[in-house]
Amino acid sequence: MPHHPHKNDLLNVTGVATRAPTLTLIVLLLLVVATAPLAAAPASGAAAYPTPPVGCSELVTNGAFESPIFLNWSPQGFVVADPSVKIGGTFSARIGLTASDPNQNIASSIRQTINLPAGFDINLSFQWFPKFDLDISDADVQFVNIQTSNGSIIPVVPNTKQNSTTWQAVNSFPLNSLAGQQITLIFGVNNDGVGSKTWMYVDDVSIIACPTPSTATPTPTVTLTTTPTPLPTPLPEGCVTNEIPNGSFENDTAWIFGDDPAPASYVSSPVRSGVRSVRLGIDPATTPGVSGKESFSSIRQAINLPTTANVAKLSWWHFDRTEEGVLTEAPRMILVDRQELVLLNMDLSTLAVPYSARLNGGAWVQSTVDLTNFRGRPLFIYFNVLNDGNNLRTWQFIDDVTLTLCFPPTPIPTPTSPPTHTPTPTITATDTPLPFATAMDSGAAVTSDPNAILLNSGDPVVVTVAASDARAAQPALGAMLWFGRSPGEVLLWVGVMVGSIAIIGMLVWLIRQYRGSNTAP
After folding, report:
1. Model confidence at 35, in pLDDT bands (50, 70, 90)?
2. Do residues 165 and 256 both lie within one domain?
3. Neighbour tally for 122: CB within 10 Å
4. What single DSSP character describes residue 35?
5. Pairing with 329, which of 25, 43, 88, 117 sits 20 to 30 Å away (CA)?
């Protein structure tokens, strides 16, 4: 007898057929849940990116990492904008090596430099999700640090190695003690390349500054007044400041760029003046992926300081950055990151090192060195940033290189007055005769007669006589003088001459008589 299915049998078969797909679906879901990476499960109810209260300011730029190129952050090592694990928005920052990455010894981090205003209540907040693949003892670490402007490290999350199942929040970490300073916020993971691989996700980084009660007072009405721009300090007399050739880097001349794995280059930001400066060293923003390389990133230019200058000084503006600690005087006998100015001989041997430091100011500052001792010799000025290859990078920007020279004052000759012409006086001899007895008497009294002055003083008598007066005096002089002498003088000299002739004649006669008497008959 043929068997016909019972109604209940049909129901049972139908029930089994209906439940089979349901059980299969449940099993598949369990398998997916069991095999899915735990890291991909965001925390339920995670806080949204904070919005500053009214009157407060957000100091972190791109803290939610919505820019896949890490705008305003400096990445180092293995850093990725991750769209799969995030609090909100599009991306988080994934730092370090994940389970699927090849294991290697690498330091990975992101950092941002922030100026904290003085007189504000300032707090740091962020979300982080630490992970590793193997729970073994090794040197892998995750950390969050604040580096101050003097290079000190303040741990926010001290070195740790965690494997969380959800996001962890750090809320309202106080930064009031650093108000008025510049800080660098650092999120990092160090992988030692042995054993496990360690990484972490970071999102919604925020530093909010709110006025303190003492500063949150009603704003008074402010009358704006024009503040005059302070004039630059005038140079001493005899000094002049000149930009050396292409000292502002506005064209491609004058400078020699060193051949290096991380060569220097012209950049358009930051600049102090004009439209270009020069970058030295390894800047993560412009040379991404370059780290762990020993490099001398340099520029140089030949100069010759004149011997006539009594002072010679070189000045330049620099914007310094480093991922290492700050050194105001960087040693040169060991291989450490540094920013420096070196003077080179023309054969490129070192002449002197007037400046060597490792700074992280994040603002333009000017330095000046004295080159007076190097006058009269050709040399190279050589700007250099050294990286020692330890994966922590150092770089700087340079602009407005100038040279100040001072010269001694030139003596000004004292003007000499032209000689004054003095008319030559006319000297006229006075021949007014004196009585003979008076002329021969040396004891005669001095008279007011000009000729008496002549006889007593021995100096010529200067008399200015008009031509008409001289002509009128000629007849009178002719009537008074014999041969220019007085009659008495003429007769005296005639008598003397006649007597002399007589005496001579007498002597001649006596001689002849004497000789005649002695002559034999």
Report:
1. very low
2. no
3. 24
4. H
5. 117
Reference 380, options 278, 255, 261; nearest CA is: 255
Instruction: Note whether residue 452 is domain-resident.
Output: no
Q: Give CA 478 to chain center in angstroms.
A: 99
Quick: pLDDT tens for 164-215: 999 999 998 999 999 989 999 999 999 999 889 999 999 999 999 998 875 4
- Does residue 270 have a cis peptide bond before it, meaning omega lies within 30 degrees of 0? yes
- Domains identified in the chain, total number: 2
Instruction: Please give the pLDDT value at position 9.
Output: 42
The contacts of residue 416 (CB under 8 Å, 6+ apart) are: none
Report the C-alpha dihedral over residues 278, 282, 287, 292, rounded to 10 degrees.
Answer: 160
How far apart (Å, rounded) are the C-alpha atoms in residues 73 and 202? Answer: 13
65 with 191, same domain: the answer is: yes
Phi, psi at residue 338, to the nearest 5°? -165, 160
The DSSP code sequence of 284-345 is TTTSTT--S-EEEEEEEEEEE--TT-SEEEEEEEEEEEESS--BSS--SSS---EEEEEEE-
Radius of gyration of the chain (CA): 56
114 and 161 housed in the same domain: yes
Are 73 and 184 in the same domain? yes
* 3-state SS assignment for residue 474: helix
517: CB partners within 8 A, 6+ apart: none
Residue 332's pLDDT band, with cuts at 50, 70 and 90, is confident
How far apart are alpha carbons 6 and 145 in whole angstroms?
76
Q: Give the CATH number of the domain where residue 56 resides.
A: 2.60.120.260
Q: What amino acid is encoded at 378 in this protein?
A: P
**Does 417 have pLDDT greater than 90?**
no
Does residue 414 lie within any of the structural domains? no
Closest of 329, 325, 351 to residue 340, by C-alpha: 329
| Position 20 pLDDT exceeds 70 | no
In the block, tokens 């930001």 appear at: 269
What's the mean pLDDT in 395-404?
A: 95
> Is residue 464 one of the residues assigned to a domain?
no
- Residue 187 and residue 248 share a domain: no
Task: Report how far residue 323's alpha carbon sits from residue 188's, in angstroms, rounded to the nearest whole number.
Answer: 12
Q: With a cut of 60, say whether residue 467 has pLDDT above it.
A: no
Phi, psi of 379 (to 5 degrees): -155, 165
Cα 252 from chain centre = 21
Let me know if residue 198 belongs to a domain: yes
Q: How far apart are CA 316 and CA 248, in angstroms?
A: 10
Containing structural domain, residue 160? 39-211
- φ/ψ of 192, rounded to 5, equals -90, -5
Residues 254 and 147 in one domain: no
Alpha carbons 350 and 343: distance in angstroms, whole number: 6
Q: Are residues 284 and 181 in the same domain?
A: no
The pLDDT assigned to 145 comes to 94
